[in-house]
Amino acid sequence: IVISAQNTILTAIKANQANAFDYLSKPFDLPDLMKRCSKALEQKKSRNKSDPADLSMEEDQQNLPLVGATPIMQELYQTVAKLMHADLPIMICGESGTGKTLIAKVLHNFSDRRNFPLVTVSEADLTELEGPSKILARARGGTVLFEQIADFNDECQARIVRMIDNSLDTAPRFIATMQDEAHEAAEAGVIRRDLYYRLGGATIRVPSLRERVDDIKILAEHFLNKGERDGALMRTFGPEASDLFRSYSWPGNVRQLENIVKRLGLTARSQVITLAELEQVLQDQPAMPLSQKRGSTDKLSSDVARHLRRYFDLHGNVLPPPGLYARILREVERPLLDIALEETGGNQAKCADLLGINRNTLRKKISELDIMVTRRRKLM
């Protein structure tokens, strides 16, 4: 187990190449370390020996392919490192501007295939009669990347299926990016199920910038430094501007942040970028799409829809028995009350307030459903 103060993608890659079971970033939690040590002792892992040339990679903070030190990014780094040398096809999912294509390039550039081509495929490349065979010939031994594969029409997706099936001799690795969750896109018919089954060997979810707020300052300073190396004047952010960077919603994610920092680096009146200058730039930015604002609600709705679809599928061509509406409500009601009571420590007043119902109504439901209520303090 490697413990490192360098919380970067290269740390994860090198730890994986050195046959490390896991790595922790400083500062670390002692119980977490003990848990991982126990897990490492219980599980024997066989990994390929390291390539000495790979382990000599310099950890140049200014040229890191991915930047971020939050826990969610550490998980991403470890996932990428573990999939680096696997031959599994990979689907990379995340909002626009999160860095999906960048991660695909990292997977190729640091893998055993790095000396072979990385071929990015568009829908137009597949419309030619000989398109798929040409792609396989160009990518022989390397990687084929389908960007925003959910935007490809059905015929192009069918061609990809056939291309994957016919690629056994050339054996490139297939990676696809998309904004939707892969399994949801397949269930909604956005991508073909047969294509999902072929590309869904592993899935990497790239977090939005809203999920990694503590990385925003690091990223903004990284982009400022990058601008200086490209010839811009040296700049810093004032404290109020830094606060606004953290509180802004960033619908365009890292790409939007980079473009705004570049603009400020060129247009700021002094060395210190002020709150007013940042506010002026942000006023020109489009509002967050409704789909992102409702992200958590949409996710819950899609999860419910998925389970309902499976329920109908279980009945084949026959409709479920009558009374489905009341039956579904009863099935949802009990776990909803159970979990709400658990989250409020068994406090019925808090639970009723959380659910938005009268306390007497809650008591009646608890009695009807025979739910056991235990008062306990919620552990945080």
What tags apply to this protein structure?
five-stranded parallel β-sheet, two-stranded parallel ribbon, single chain, about 375 residues, Helicase, Ruva Protein, domain 3, Arc Repressor Mutant, subunit A, globular, about 10% strand
Provide a descriptive summary of the structure in words.
By secondary structure, this protein is of the alpha/beta class. 52% of the residues lie in helices and 8% in strands. It contains 19 helices and nine strands. The strands form three sheets. The protein has a five-stranded parallel β-sheet, sandwiched between helices. A two-stranded parallel ribbon has the order 1-2. The radius of gyration is 25 Å and the shape is globular. About 5% of the residues have low confidence.
Topology, please?
Layout: E1 2-4, H1 9-17, E2 23-25, H2 30-42, H3 52-55, H4 71-83, E3 90-93, H5 100-109, E4 118-121, H6 123-127, H7 131-138, E5 143-146, H8 154-165, E6 173-178, H9 182-187, H10 193-199, E7 202-205, H11 216-229, E8 236-237, H12 239-247, H13 253-267, E9 272-273, H14 275-283, H15 290-293, H16 295-314, H17 324-343, H18 348-355, H19 359-368
Parallel strand pairs: 1-2, 3-6, 3-7, 4-5, 5-6, 8-9
